[in-house]
Structure formats: structure tokens, C-alpha cells
Protein 1
Amino acid sequence: MDAQHAILLESAFQEEARTFDAADPLASLRAEFLRPMTAEGQPILHFAGHSLGLQPRQVRESVLEVLDDWAQLGVEGHFAARRPWLSYHELLTESTARLVGALPAEVVVMNTLTVNVHLMMVSFYRPTAKRKRILIESGAFPSDRYAVASQAQFHGLDPEIAVQELVPRPGEATLRDEDILATIARDGEEIALILLGNCNYLTGQRFDMAAITRAGHAQGCVVGFDLAHGAGNLLLNLHDDGPDFAAWCNYKYLNAGPGGLGGVFVHERHLGRVDLPRFAGWWGHDKAARFQMGPQFQPIATAEAWQLSNPPILALAALRASMALFDAAGMVELTQKAAWLTDFLHRQLQTLPAGAVEVLTPTEPHRRGTMLTLRVPGRAAELVGYLQRRGAEVDLRRPDIVRIAPVPLYTSAHDVAELGVLLRAFWSEHA
Ligand SMILES: *Cc1c(COP(=O)(O)O)cnc(C)c1O
């Protein structure tokens, strides 16, 4: 690129960003978040919301309300707090249902993700002599892999045999949709459970949940999804798409804070079933009878039946503040903005020298979410360090993977254009 061309390119991107931001109906939400500062006192450009979302300003007040009520009311806070702790988790139900396209009875906020994946498998992974496999992606998140392997062992099975992986074709980074469906059609009779992430945490590939669910159910498989990278990122319709269950964490796209509580979806068709095995606890017991402290477990007729313990109210309070922002924004609007920002980011990457980066995430908008995954051969760590020193936070997976998410709640087109400037500067300085 000659100097003249480079100046024109920068001003065209800046102009496009200004136009987009000026018309962005969600622009005001950006001010609702706290941002780390650089050494020079500038707010950082945060592109790692797929890893840990920024802190909403209202979290502090929401958490302080609980602390103050506890200080002033003691144990009475269970009933007398401004938002009584006994039913506090219910404050999240409507918002969570809206977020994932579910009925309120189908969702609950509880525990953390891997715990919930296990609890779901206790109920929904029921291997038989003929049908014992769990189908996962070859690039599944390690915790999911450990969870399915240990569940197989728990049933006395050898994970080497019981866990089947979907593997991309040689030379390809992501799975082809038709290969996923073909595997289910071919091996479905031996598969007890299909458990896929959506999006895949590493490549950002989005799977067609409705098609996979249909294909799985046609073969008699149970179908579940790990939505750690889907909840708050994708426009989800869990009830209509029909998977049997889903689980996700709320601290990535959903800004619940480090170690924040997870969410669970159990499809309506399974609610109230008495034949499902379940690890039970008192918080899953019929609310009206809970404090009679009787010996017989009577499950609540909603997804709350899977709750074990009384939940950590401070963590729920943090999540409540963030969910209010999702309610204010709406997932339709957020995903529209995200699609534009992600395309804008992709166009920044296309200005880099040939071979500098390879985008692993599928480019079709319906096959990805907000995050783009790059392979940066030989220079990933150097690039991430360079960006960090200039106030831009992206995410490094050694040795050569960089993940970037222009999260729509708090990212502007201007932020993306600024990242583009830094990326181009890195390659012109390191040519
Ligand atoms: C982030 C993530 C996890 C993390 O699990 P925790 O139990 O919340 O620590 C698990 N699985 C996937 C797919 C993830 O993306």
C-alpha cells in the first residue's frame, strides 16, 4: 500500500465508523460499563468479552443493596430484604428466558457451567448396551471433554470408546454442516447424547441447532448444547429449536463477573417427568413444602427442580444488573449490531498483507457469532503484546491463535476502526 492509498483507506474507515455510531440505537449502553485504563489514563479497547465481559456500572449498587440488607436485617433478609433472598433467583427468570428464546419454566440460573453440564448429563446421558456414545466436537473446550469422559467412566464405560468426536476434514479448520448431519445419520443408533458447543469456543463456528436437534431426535439421540459462547452472543430460540437441554456461563458475553453463575435450559417436554434420574437438593423441592423439611423429594415442575442449594445472592445481584442491560437492548438489536461490527472487523483484517493472518471463523454470517478467530503464524504473541501496549485487549491462545470479539453492548465502530489502525501499524512496522 502506498502512503496516499493508506491515508485514503484510514479516512474512509473513520468516516464509515462515524456514520454507523451516529445512527446506532444502542450507542448509549457503552457508558453503562466500566473499562480498565491504560497507563496513560485512556480507557482500553476491549475485544475480549468472549472471555470475561466488562463490569456494568450498576453491578456495584446491586451488590451493595444485598450487603446493606444483610447488615441491617440479618437472617430476616431471606423474607424482608428489598428483594427477598428466598426468591431472588426468580428475578432472573424472565430475562433469561427472553435471552435464550425459552419459556420461563424452562430456565434457571444456578451453579457454574461445568457443574451444570454434569447435572444435565446425570439426567440426560443414559447409556444402554447398544446406545452409549456421546458425540462432541474434536475441538471441544477441555472442561466439556473432561466432563463427558468422566460421565462415561461414571457409567463404567471406556471414554476412548464412549466419546466420539466430530473432526474437520483434513486441511480444514471448521466442521462442515453436512458432515455433522451425515455422522448423526450414520452413527445415530449408537449415540446416546449429542453435546456440542455453540459457537465453538476456539473457532467461533456456529452450528445449526435446529437441524442438529432434528437429525439427533430422528435417530433417538438426546441433544444438548453448551452455550458458553452462545448465550448473549447469538439470537437463540431454544424452545422452538427443541434441544433437550442447554447450559451456559454468564460471565463471558453476559458480564456476570468472574466465576459468575451459569444458566440452564431444560425443554418443556422434560419438565415434571418423574422417570428422569436427577441429583436432588432441597432448592429443587416444591417451594410450598420446602420448609416442612419432609424426607421425600418433590421436584418443582420447572427447570428449578435441578437446583441443589440456596444460591449465592451476591453473584445473582451482579448478574441482575447485567441482565437489565440485555432487556433494555434486546437480542434482535444486539445481534444486528454485532453482525455489522464483526463484518467491519473482518474488512479491517482484509487490509493486512497477504498471508499475515488467516481467519478461521466461517465468513458466512449465519455460521458465526460476534467473535473472529485468527491464525497468526509465528507472530501471535508478538501481535497481542503490541496491541496490549497500545491499549487494545484481544485474546491469545498459544501458539498462534488470536480471538477478537467486538461485543455490541459496549463496542463502537470507532473502536473497531482504531483496532484496524493498530493492526495495520503492526504489519507496516514489522514488514
Ligand atoms: C468458558 C467455557 C467453559 C468454562 O467452564 P466453567 O465451568 O464456567 O469454568 C466451559 N465450556 C465452554 C465451552 C466454555 O467456553
Protein 2
Amino acid sequence: MEENPIDRVPINMSSPDLTSREREAVASVLDTRWLSMGPQEKSFEAAVKEYIGSRHAIAVNSGTAGLHLCIRAAGIRDGDWALTTPFSFVASANVLLYERAAPIFVDVDKKTGNIDPALVAEAAADLKAGGSSAQKWLPRRGVSKTGQLRAILTVDVFGQPADYDQISEIAAENELDLIEDSCEALGSSYKGRLAGKFGRASAFAFYPNKQITTGEGGIVITEDDDWSATIRSLRNQGRAPGDTWLTHTRLGYNYRLNELSAALGVVQMSRLDAMIEKREQIAAWYSEELGSIPGVELPWVSADTTRMSWFVYVVRFEPSIDRNRIADALKEQGIPSRPYFLPIHLQPYMVERFGYQDGDFPVTEDLGRRGLALPFSSVMSQDEVQRVAEAIRNALARV
Ligand SMILES: *Cc1c(COP(=O)(O)O)cnc(C)c1O
């Protein structure tokens, strides 16, 4: 009798990669008095700093918190504009909204899904000029029409760095701060340089589906001494060096990373390269299995991406295939998957506030309609990859 696929061991959408070393590291924190603001936080920051080769690394309790502090450090505020991408996880746009600044979206490259440098250049010139030339880049409502363009916020989508030669030049020419959301790209490199090194500040994230995890967590990278000091103060309730526990120099937050999480992060960092290699292997298995299936487009890796630290494995179906029906057919076979990304500008609160409509960012919307993230983690087996591929072939035959 044939085995019912649903009865097999379930395949997870993602999974952390944990060993006895992580377990011991976390347990040993419980034997100390330091559950926050202790030696593990320092060790974790040192490990990331060394890996990235950055001057500063400031641990925080989520990637979103890290990005928010980059925006605060840049002094971006009410009425300011920042160029960014609608093809991302919502956090990259939300951190601007937290400061009442406006994300000004430009569309993305259809191969990589990363922000399109030609559009960034055009928009930056028009927005800097202001007046009527600026208007075509602004949403229909909800933003100051006389704002000031302050920054470019790039996202290294699915682990692939944006096109930094061009974007850094545009930022420099227009005197804009470049902030890099590298939350999906720990360990990736662009023309031999690691993601996280391109922004004046950048953030990594350590939610359980990322390349490494601290449960929840993030870290900010910067070369800038002033920004580093500001970010350290902001994550710790606005205390500045010399402040007592109840003195607060500025309006801050509790964005600190606890010691249990930091201890987990120290061990995960020591295993990062090995885990990236496993992710590479799994992506290669997927590409081998799926490469010859008509109607399925494999993820595109640019020649400029000298190392791809795979965050997710996202395929695209050709336009005549209904991606949602494929996802349903996979689910019936016990295989999870996720539409990825749903464009930010079409999220309900964005539509309500800014009046965005279908058609505003056609490339983003096309990728959003056709992309499907498949189960992916560094603990997947070849057998599991084959089961997913088989389920995709079955789904395509049915729909
Ligand atoms: C994961 C992620 C973040 C931050 O996520 P947190 O859950 O806050 O750690 C930000 N931007 C992108 C693109 C992400 O993928």
C-alpha cells in the first residue's frame, strides 16, 4: 500500500539549528546572577564585530529595534522622506513610520527583487529638487509634500545584497545617509565585501528562521563612533555614559538583548559558516530538483553576489500558473510554503494611510504574486528536499 504523504514526518517551513553546545551555554547563564547587561552581551557583540570586521556592533532585542535605532541615529523625523523598497518584510518601512517619516517607495529589479538603482537615482534627483518634480514619487496622500529627502534604506532581499556600487554613489552624490537592512543577509557578500558593511549603519536579525538565532534579537553595525554611542544610549533607556540607573539623557527604549539570548548567539556565531554551507547545499539540492520543471523559475543569484548566505529559498511560477493554488495543493500534501513577500504598499494599513493601489509598483507586485518560499533551514535533509520537489510536481500536474 502506498504511504499517504501527510502521514510522514512533517516538514517545517523553517527550523533553528541547535546543538548541545547552545543548550549548555544557555543553561550556564542560569547559574550566574547576570541575566541582562552582562558578559554574554559583550561576547556576542565581539563575535559579530570580528566576523563582519566592523568598528562597532550593538546588540538589541530584535532586527526591527536595530533598524529603528539606525533611523533615530540618523535623526530622521517628522516630515522627512527616505527612499526604500516595497518588496520587503514590513519592518523596513515601519521603522520610518515610527518616527513619522515617510517611506518613499521605488520599484525593484525583476531578477533579484532588490531596489532598482536606476529608479533610486531618478527619484533622489527629483526629490532633492523638490516642487513639482518630486510629486510623482510621493504617495497619493498621507505625506508632507514639502518634505526633505534624508536617506536611502536598502534591503538585502532573501540574503542577496543590493547593488551597492551604484547605491552608495547615489547616496554620496545626494548627501543621503545609507541605511542597510541586512536582516536577511548575515554572511553574504557583494563583490567580496560582507553585507552590513555598506550602510552608515545596518542591522542584522536573529529571529528563529534567520541564518543564526538568539530566539529574538538583532544587532546594529556601524563604523561611526557618534552613531554607535547614540545607539548604545537609545537601546538602554536613553542613559548616556556617566548617567546613573535613573538618569536619562535622552528619550530611549528598552531594546537590550538578554544574556540567555546573547549566550545562544555566541555559540551560533561560532557555527555560522558551517550553517551557511549547509544552507548552500540545501539550495543546491533544490535547484537540482526543480531546475528542470517547466513553469518553475529558480532564485536568481547575481554575479555581484560573491557569497550568497541563503535566508529563504523562493521560487517563482510562470504567470499562467496560480501560485495560491500551488500553495494549497502543497498543503494538502503536508508541505508548508509561504507567498513571499506580500508587497508592503498593499498591506491594509499602508493602503489606508497612503492611498496606494494595485499597479503602483508593478515589478514588486508581479514578484509578490508569483513567489513562493519553500521549506528551508540548515537542518533539512536531501530526502525532505526531494519530498518538496515531488509535491511541487504533483501540484503542477493538478492545477
Ligand atoms: C527579519 C527581518 C527584519 C527584522 O525582524 P525581527 O523579527 O524584528 O528581528 C527586518 N527586515 C527584514 C527584511 C527581515 O527579513
Protein 3
Amino acid sequence: MQLVLLPLLCLQLLSVLPSVAAHGFVHIVWDNTKTYVGNIPQAEPTPSIVRQIDTVDPVKGANNTFLNCGQDAQLAESVATVNPGDEMRFLWQGGDLSTWPHNIGPLMWYMTECPGNCTSYNSSTAEWFKISQLGRIPNDPNGDWYQNNIYIQANVTTNVTLPSNIAPGNYLVRHEIIALHLATSLGGAEFYPSCTQIRVAGSGTGKPTQEELVTFPGAYSDTDPGILVPDVFDLPPPPYTFPGPPVAAFVTQGAGATGTGTAARAGPTTTATSPGGGAGAGKTCKLVRASPSASASSSTKRELEELAPVPVARPRPRAHSVSGIMRDLAVGLRAIGSRH
Ligand SMILES: *[C@@H]1O[C@H](CO)[C@@H](O)[C@H](O)[C@H]1NC(C)=O
Ligand SMILES: *[C@@H]1O[C@H](CO)[C@@H](O)[C@H](O)[C@H]1NC(C)=O
Ligand SMILES: *[C@@H]1O[C@H](CO)[C@@H](O)[C@H](O)[C@H]1NC(C)=O
Ligand SMILES: *[C@@H]1O[C@H](CO)[C@@H](O)[C@H](O)[C@H]1NC(C)=O
Ligand SMILES: *[C@@H]1O[C@H](CO)[C@@H](O)[C@H](O)[C@H]1NC(C)=O
Ligand SMILES: [Cu+2]
């Protein structure tokens, strides 16, 4: 019943709905030891390992040059030193720092080696290899996506395990969400790329082959089956074809094969912190279908408390038509409706 009432509430709130809430960016990145804050789009940048973008709006079109590292991404000042096999976690948020607003579509991670220091490397012609991709949660009867995990609950991260045998060097990690809620039409897919600068230590030898490398733009086409997806809302859920190359062979061949980031592996670094909030707490227009009670781990709480103060600047909202919001809503409703 609640689900029936929510849309009415949403319609009333449309006039005050901040448009920045509909899209988002990577706000915080963790490696095994440290927390790094990514700069809010258009905020005065502070030293970070995450390349700052200038708007939370999605990159549209597979040929868009901003597919490389996100909207007008700038070089970042810092580099995180990590080890092969480390887990990295990423907190995606809406432009108003709300919970990530989308729940349909894949999470993918690519890497490219920076010749020299990533702090000065322009990656527009870089050749990338894929290290992980997460689509629908296996055997989920509703066809839910891993992306749904960061939508239904605040402060849940996306996670990747770096290849356990990767050669040492300076790398960019290109983490991308594709939101497919409008992907039933050509050009509807929303791309959210984000680049993080790391230096991998150790003595690994793993490298991709030449055939596994792609450029951005270049890797995708608007008509790829994973980008134009007319059956994305069908049930039972049809198999999903990831765009781009397969995960590089060395990633899965390395000792203790990793790279298909599973939640279970995270163990002690549980990342849900939603004190008393529950799903969608404080959000106006999210169509929430479940209310998992968050059990915040004390270690994560500590991590979040230790974060540097968030800059006060907010992204300047771009014009975002009400009809676009309505379409989002309508599609969201279809998605929710088809689950019940
Ligand atoms: C994207 O680029 C490809 C390759 O150059 C070209 O065939 C295609 O027409 C372009 N698509 C659009 C929408 O411009
Ligand atoms: C990288 O090079 C492209 C093409 O010259 C340019 O448009 C872009 O602004 C550069 N990016 C950075 C971060 O300097
Ligand atoms: C890369 O650049 C950063 C920032 O300038 C600096 O701290 C770091 O020492 C540099 N690393 C190397 C290997 O030059
Ligand atoms: C990331 O890992 C945590 C556990 O550490 C898990 O709660 C969360 O669901 C994972 N994220 C995704 C998108 O699966
Ligand atoms: C999520 O984390 C941010 C800090 O990054 C914090 O300000 C916010 O209160 C947290 N939200 C919830 C629901 O825990
Ligand atoms: Cu959006």
C-alpha cells in the first residue's frame, strides 16, 4: 500500500525537487587503510585522488569525450598507494549528497597505466582494460542489480578487488556506473565515469593483452546490447550483455582470482552506516520497496567521522526538465510495479 501512496507524494514534491538529486558523483573512496574525499563538482578543489568533474549530470552518448573520466574531469593532486588484491570502495552520492538515485544498470571498473605520475596524465587517448563488472545479482527473482544495493540504503559502497597479480605501477581506476532506466530508447543510457589515481606496489607481473585494451570514447556504441536495452524491465530478467571488452584474462587467472567484487569478501570493512535511517530515510521521491534496517559497523562509523569536512559549495544545478523527472518517475514506477 505504501508504494501506491508514494507516487502521489512525489507529484506534490516535484516543484521543490532539487534536480541535482537525480544524478551524482563519487564522493568518497576507501582503500584498505585510508579514506579519501572526492571533490564535489564545482567546489574549490582540495587535494584528492579522485578527478573532479564539473557537473553531476550524466554523460550522454557513447561518443562523448567526457566518457573518458567524467564531465570535464580535471587532474587530481594526490595518489593512493595500494597493493595488488586490495579492496577499494566507492561512495556514490546524488548531487545534494543524498543516496545514489539510480538502481538499474551495471557497475564496471577499468584500469590504465599512467606513463609517469597519474597526477599529470591526460588519459584522453589512454588504453584501458576491464578488471571487474557487476550486473544483475545472480538468481535474484526481481532481476535486481548490484547497483540497487547503493540505492536502497545510504552510505553503502560499490566495491572492487584489485587484481591480485597486477604489475606495479601508476594507474587510473575508471569506475563507471551506467544507469539504464531510460535505456529502452536509443541514447537514453546515462554514463557516470569516475577516475581515481593510484600507485600499485608489490611485484606482480599481471598485464592485459593488446586485444583487451580499449579507449573512451571508442569502447562503446549507442546500439550495444548493454547500452540500448529494450528488455531491461522484462521479467523474468533476461541475461545482460556488458558493454566493452571482457574482464582481462590475467585478472581471473591470477592467484586467488579476484576482480568480480563480491560483498562477502569485504568482511571487516562493512560499509553500511545508516543510523536509525533505514532505506530512503530523509529522501523525498525515491520509490523504496524494502526497508532493511541498517546495522552500522563501528569501524565504518569511525571512518566516516574521520572524514575531512565536506566543502560547502554545491553543484550548480543545470536545467532539468520536469518532464524528464516525470519520465524517470514513470519508468521507476514501471520497474517497481513489475516487481510485485
Ligand atoms: C559515433 O562514432 C562512430 C564511429 O566513429 C560513428 O559510426 C557513429 O555514427 C557515431 N555516433 C553518433 C551518434 O555520432
Ligand atoms: C586532455 O586533453 C583533451 C584533448 O586535448 C582536453 O580536451 C582535456 O581538457 C584535457 N584534460 C585535462 C585534464 O587536461
Ligand atoms: C606524483 O605526484 C605527487 C603530487 O605531486 C607527488 O606527491 C608524488 O611524490 C609523485 N610521485 C612520483 C613517483 O613522482
Ligand atoms: C560492498 O560491500 C559491502 C560489504 O562490505 C556490502 O554491504 C555492499 O552491498 C557492497 N556493495 C555492493 C554494490 O554490492
Ligand atoms: C552518510 O555519510 C555522510 C558522510 O559522508 C554523512 O554526512 C551522512 O549523515 C551519512 N548518512 C547516513 C544516512 O548515514
Ligand atoms: Cu541521474
